Amino acid sequence: MAAPLTGIRACVFDAYGTLFDFASAAQRCRDVLGEKTTPLTALWRDKQLQYTWLRSLQGQHADFWQVTGEALDYAVDTLGIADPGLRNRLMELYLTLDTFPEVPEVLRRLKAAGLRTAILSNGSPRMLEAAVGNAGIAGLLDAVLSVEAAGVYKTHPKVYQLAIDRLGVPAKEISFQSSNAWDAYAASAFGMRVVWCNRYGQRPERLPGAPDRVVRDLSDLPALLAD
User: Fold this and answer.
1) Which one is catalytic: 14, 21, 63, 212?
2) Can you give the pTM of this predicted structure?
3) In the predicted model, what is the mean pLDDT of residues 1-17?
């Protein structure tokens, strides 16, 4: 176990891929997708993120629900999937994604330790409300923050500032958790302490910032933040 991070007062989590398993939507449609389940999941996610970055650079913001649908349309078209009801089914499933198994207990332990907890996500308010409600974790969170309040996507600094403004905690006293390496590095460059939840075995980024700790899932997080 790595040495604990000290002086942490709040834990802020990315949502998709960190708390919620974005792959679970397509997995529930395996009856239709078959061997295209995994390729669709990967392409849908890649294009979803690309569209957030490109829209931010273009100054052409649209909320994450629209971006997610447009990314799905691209992926379905690319993979030659023809099922008229599949799009609506997948989009509705994105509102009720599975949480990773350790998430509820980790949040309970963090709250019991007196830490403030929040989500900071690209997701739209409607998407996040649905996901949090479905997971039954609303009572374990002090705030659920969407980039819509900033009008731009991660990794813009205005997004990370939302957590500071809402929680009233300085960046150096926030532990930010993300499974996305680019997100983890950006939060570090902003000034937050960072635990990179490297669920997907990614390589380290060559970007400003660096995670303070790296874990394979969130199970070790409460012990890492013992002060």
Assistant:
1) 14
2) 0.96
3) 93
